[in-house]
Structure formats: structure tokens, C-alpha cells
Amino acid sequence: MKTIFVEKEEKTSVNFFVKIFPPCLTNRLYLCLMQMTSNPIRVSFVGSGNVATRLCYAFRDAGVEIFQLLSNSSSGKELSEVLDMELITTPKELKPVDVVLLCIKDDALIPDYLSQFPKNLLLCHSSGSVSMEVFENHKRAAVFYPLQTLSKTKEVEFENIPICLEAREKTDLKLLTTLAKTISRDVRVVDSKERLQIHLAAVFVSNFANHLYKIAGDLLENSNIDFDILKPLIAETAAKVQMINPLQAQTGPALRHDEEVIKKHIDLLNPYPDYQKIYKLFSKSIAENN
Q1: Which residues 6+ apart lie within 8 Å of 139 measured at CB?
Q2: What's the pLDDT tens digit per position in 67-87?
Q3: Are the C-beta atoms of 47 and 104 separated by less than 8 Å?
């Protein structure tokens, strides 16, 4: 486990514990120590989708004070009731807090909407692909990007999820670092250009991979075969890249240049021209890049 980061110039009791107990200093203990030496961090949320829901629960469980929820949806009303947050419907209703986390769709992060937020608040979006410069009229602007696929209905353990941070002001970055470390051991400072590159790579390993699972499921379903038969293979493939790099982990007919097997597969895909194109594209890429 990483040692919890604390600025060297801080003369607090937290430093003592960090130096004496770095191997066993958990995120929960870190939060408790920070609360002993400073006021608790107060966070309000904008949005009630997948990211907002999971972060709300994670912060609540870590002891962070989640205050207001800005949402006009029924899911927002439900979330605010479950977590005892004050539900509001317009930015002007936001009260002073340490951080306002905007967990909304990328196309909603537009100047006309953001200009409605109080200028004195720290506004922080959670997008992997939107530059921090979208907050063009806000001096206190930041990004809090959890690098993980999140769903409302599935609990997730944030402890090992990378949290990518960016902020205009050093003091705000320090605050967000403290906040992020209440839920994760992996907190990184990443600028907008790097974050976009990370997001692109994440789409390949998560979104595209999941779509391939869907394709595989369709093919099996049409032959009355249960998708469960693939789950051990999926698990082993994911586990293997934790130990060796993807280039070394690659197997299959395209790597072996087994044209006979490839042709059989392509023929089987004749009823599915779109899937056939994907198969050919992937096979060509594997053959040429391994």
C-alpha cells in the first residue's frame, strides 16, 4: 500500500502517524486523522447517474459529508432521500461547500450552463474526455476522474481505482488529493491531454471489450448455448494481463496465421456482416502487430 501523501510543510499529528505507520495506515484511518486536525470536507453533487451515485455512496461510507444534490430526475430524488442529501434543481441554490462535483454528461458541460454556478465555488467535473478549460469563467476549476466503469446498480470498491486529478489552484489540488485519498489508495495528478489519452485507452479495454462480449453472446444465443461457458475464459484473459503484457498474452488463430480456421469463422459469420467486418479487422490487426 502506498504511503498517504502529506505535504512536508504541514506540522500536524497526521505526519506523525504517516511516518510511524505507513504500511497499515488505511484510507478510513487517514480520513479520521484529517478530521481530527481540520474541518470535514463538504461535497455537493450535480447529477444522479452512474458516476454520481457510486461516488455519493463511496464518500458517504468514507465519512465525507455529502451535502446537496442538484438533479431534476426521479433518480436524483430517490438518491437524495436514501442518502439524506438536500435536493435542489438549479445551480443558484448551491450553498457554500468545499467541492461541487459535476457528474453529468459531457455534452452538458457547456459554458452557458456552467456560467450559472456561483463563481466562488470549486467546480470539479468527472469526465475523462473534457478539458478543464471548459470552466472558462471559473478561477477555481478542477477535474476528479475515477478511472473505472461504474453502474448505479453495482457496488464497487474504490480502494484500488485510480483517481485522476487536475486543478487550476494548488490549494484546490491539495484539497482534492485529501478528498480522493478518503476512498482510493491510487491518486494521480494528470493534465487534460494525458487524461484524454487515458480515456481513449480505457474505451478500448472496457467499452469495446464489453461490446465484444455482447457479440459473443449473440452468436452463442443463436445456437442455444449459454454465455456462462465463456466466463472462465473472460476471467483468465483479464487476469493474464495483470501478470504479463498484452503482446505476450495474445493467442488465437490470427496470431498463428491459421488461415483455415479464420476462413471457417468468417464463413460462420456470413449471416452477420457487421460482425464479420469486425472479425476481419481484428484478425488483420493481430496478425500485423504481433
Answers
A1: 119, 168, 169
A2: 999 999 999 999 999 999 999
A3: yes
Residue-range domains of the chain with CATH: 1-37 (no CATH), 39-190 (3.40.50.720), 195-289 (1.10.1040.20)
- Which residues, 6+ apart, have CB-to-CB distance to 182 below 8 Å? 27, 28, 30, 31, 34, 41, 59, 62, 63, 64
User: Are 65 and 43 spatial neighbours (Cβ–Cβ below 8 Å)?
Assistant: yes
Q: How many angstroms separate the CA atoms of 39 and 36, rounded?
A: 8
Strand partners, 88: 70
Closest to 55 (Cα-Cα) out of 31, 33, 79: 79
> For 111-138, how does the pLDDT look when each residue is reduced to its tens digit (9 = 90+)?
999 999 999 999 999 999 999 999 998 9
Burial class (CB in 10 A: 0-12, 13-18, 19+), 185: buried
pTM over 0.90: no
224 conformational bin, left if phi > 0, alpha if psi -120 to 50, beta if neither? left
Residue 146 · residue 155 · CB < 8 Å: no
| Residues β-bridged to residue 69 | 45, 87
Question: CB–CB of 254/262 below 8 Å?
Answer: yes
Single-letter amino acid code for the residue at 243: M
- Secondary element (H or E) of residue 260: helix 259-268
The grid coordinates of residue 197 equal 489519452
**Which among 208, 193, 37, 207 has a CA at the least distance from the CA of 128?**
193
User: Which band of pLDDT confidence, cut at 50, 70 and 90, is reported for residue 16?
Assistant: very low
Specify the pLDDT at position 192.
97
Beta-bridge partner residues of 290: none
